[in-house]
TrEMBL record:
Residues modified to 4-aspartylphosphate: D54
Pfam families listed in its UniProt record: Response_reg (PF00072), Trans_reg_C (PF00486)
Keyword annotations: DNA-binding, Phosphoprotein, Transcription, Transcription regulation, Two-component regulatory system
InterPro entries on file: CheY-like_superfamily (IPR011006), OmpR/PhoB-type_DNA-bd (IPR001867), Sig_transdc_resp-reg_C-effctor (IPR016032), Sig_transdc_resp-reg_receiver (IPR001789), WalR-like (IPR039420), WH-like_DNA-bd_sf (IPR036388)
Full protein name: Response regulator transcription factor
UniProt signal peptide: none
Residues annotated as domain Response regulatory: 3-120
Amino acid sequence: MSRVAVIEDDHPTSNQLRAWIEAARPGIMVDQWFSRDDAEAAIARERYDLVVLDIELGRERHAGVAIINAINKRHATPVLVVSAMPATIYRSIMKALDAWDYLQKATFEEADFVETFLEILRAAPVPAPAPSAGTAELSMDPLRQRTPMWRGQRINLPLTAQRILAALFARRGQVISYDELFDVVKSGRNRDNIRKHVSTIRDAFREIDPDFTCIENVPMRGFRWTDGE
């Protein structure tokens, strides 16, 4: 069952969003939070499939920015921002923070919200259980910095690329955000550099397996190791 959080300090608006969500997806679980502290505590405690978030909470003009950063550090949960801030200014800001979409209050109808909400919910990755050791085709020991093996063949990778590969494979089925990958590299902590490392990894795998597709790009968010199917 899907579980979403509505983080909005205005109670009537929060209740309206909840009603739209529940009507659009019967049986869905909706948690409502009205302050930054309560929202951050819930995010640390729960794993949500989607978060609907206002930027201003109480007297904190940019509380939503802090909450998005907290979300990205933990689970990279999809975020739909619903705010009165001008979309012409804040949509690009929220995208840069890895929010999935932005709706400006008083400029959209129920149908617009529901369509956007459902589109994000369908596109959001579902964490997959890790395969058993007997079925995993990749073997590596990043602690000992040994060359990784794919289907019994050695993969030639620089050390930084090995670290990124290890991070992706350790949490296979989950999206690993750019911020999390920044912690893996020692220099060049920017998205372009991460993408170059991932490209190097893919090329190395395809040298021995031309059909390799196990590293998936998740737009605006990061990368995910999949089963390649």
